[in-house]
């Protein structure tokens, strides 16, 4: 994508202070867009915004309906909305209490619902809605049932919304990365080390081995897919759950 492809576009990326969201924010800003990034913590948002003058931080929790409504009302019309914020926790289902289940559905599914709903209400013609789901939205993984259920929900939400809006000048799609080299994955590695006594290398190797190519996905590979879906020639791609996983799904 050249430096002017996104000129004049207004982009919102939830969870844009770190990992995949931060990588996307920088790429869209470099392509000419004005990018608003959100998250709960100010420091990572400020650090990401410091990389480009067209990245603007806003502390907003995706699970807070009033705050999400206020964010989009404050922004006015937008062109691209990426529901990327998410969080993972692991544990056996038999030991998952209702509070943890609800917490993971709130951020990973309800947060996407609020982001896409508000995005849709403020979307210009030719707009693009994206949700960062996961291969966990396409297949099951052991010990992450609430996360998998939420991500499957995101894929269903995107498919339904694409049907509902098919006659309009917009698209809505889900990105489904496999295990990706981000702070979220680093935290999962730490959890495995703490719970099982495995080394960090062994834990990372476990995640790498799920990808037939034997490696982690890089944030830039997810970003490249997002740029393509938001570009001028992807208007026929709608309601898809696109796997970015080296062939895992
Ligand atoms: N890494 C992987 O292996 C992988 C694979 C497939 C899909 N994904 C998905 O990719 C997306 C991005 O994750 P990542 O891997 O880039 O991890 P990350 O660096 O931890 O990014 C997640 C971001 O979401 C934000 N966030 C979390 N809860 C939030 C809330 N309630 N409100 C607003 N923002 C919130 C976090 O910021 P704050 O904590 O400051 O709020 C953080 O910046 C997630 O949806 C994740 O499920 C990741």
TrEMBL record:
Q: Which UniProt keywords apply?
A: Oxidoreductase
Q: Which PROSITE patterns match?
A: ADH_SHORT (PS00061)
One Pfam assignment: adh_short
Top-level lineage group: Bacteria
Q: Which residues form the Ketoreductase domain?
A: 9-169
Q: Name one GO molecular function term.
A: quinone binding
Checking SMART domains in the record gives: PKS_KR (SM00822)
One BP annotation, GO: fatty acid biosynthetic process
Q: Which InterPro entries match?
A: KR_dom (IPR057326), NAD(P)-bd_dom_sf (IPR036291), Sc_DH/Rdtase_CS (IPR020904), SDR_fam (IPR002347)
UniProt lists the family membership as follows: Belongs to the short-chain dehydrogenases/reductases (SDR) family.
Task: List, alphabetically, the PANTHER family matched.
Answer: 3-OXOACYL-[ACYL-CARRIER-PROTEIN] REDUCTASE, SHORT-CHAIN DEHYDROGENASES/REDUCTASES FAMILY MEMBER
Write the protein's name. 3-hydroxyacyl-CoA dehydrogenase
What organism is recorded for this protein?
Answer: Halomonas heilongjiangensis
